[in-house]
Amino acid sequence: MPADPTPNTDFPHLHDPLVAGLLSAYAQGAFPMSEPGGDVAWYDPDPRGIIPLDDGGLRVSKTLRQRVRNGRFRVTTNAAFGRVIRACAQPRGDDNDGWIDARIIDAYRRLHLAGCAHSIEAWLDADGESVLVGGLYGVHLGGLFAGESMFSRPELGGTDASKVCLVHLWHHLRARGFTILDTQFTNDHLRRLGGIEIGREEYHRMLGIAVSADRDWQPFSVPFI
Fold this sequence. Notes:
- The protein is an alpha+beta fold.
- The protein is built from seven helices and nine strands; from the N terminus they run H-E-E-E-H-E-H-H-E-E-E-H-E-H-E-H.
- Helix content is 32%, strand content 24%.
- A hairpin with a 5-residue loop joins strand 1 and strand 2.
- It is globular and about 45 Å long.
């Protein structure tokens, strides 16, 4: 696996040493999570969570399919990266609580400026206003998209907004020729959406192929379901 991804001169922020270090870590299967009040820890879990990009890899319930089809949410990409990651950082009382701190936000903002981290946003448009009600973000390296976190705001009308973003993401990755949608870990929520676990050795084999590929993020694809 390449330890030093080749810089893209279209994004001068790729010369940022922090960006280069993060991309090198992702190319080798590792990702960071901050520990509240402590250091940033690095993980390369075994087993590893993914959502397969094969036919049928994403499980879309009838209710979720209707939410995507009815167009309730306007879905965009890279329209509000900073707002998405800050929303993901808000306490939710789950196992992920507190791992996205100021250090993580700054690091991934810099990845985003380098063209290597992307967000997908769900908006509710009403009375001339757009309200951000859900989203997700992750890292793009070759044919890998490593999902980092997602959020929704049901109190603002965003029930299932993060799931709708995930449906858009999954179809977009397939359309652009990506080969891995990494979820890092699995939980009941992800398993209901098709998430599975694979061994570290198998993940690293897939990763070696993925990061050597050249896959563009744009144009952003609209799912046909």
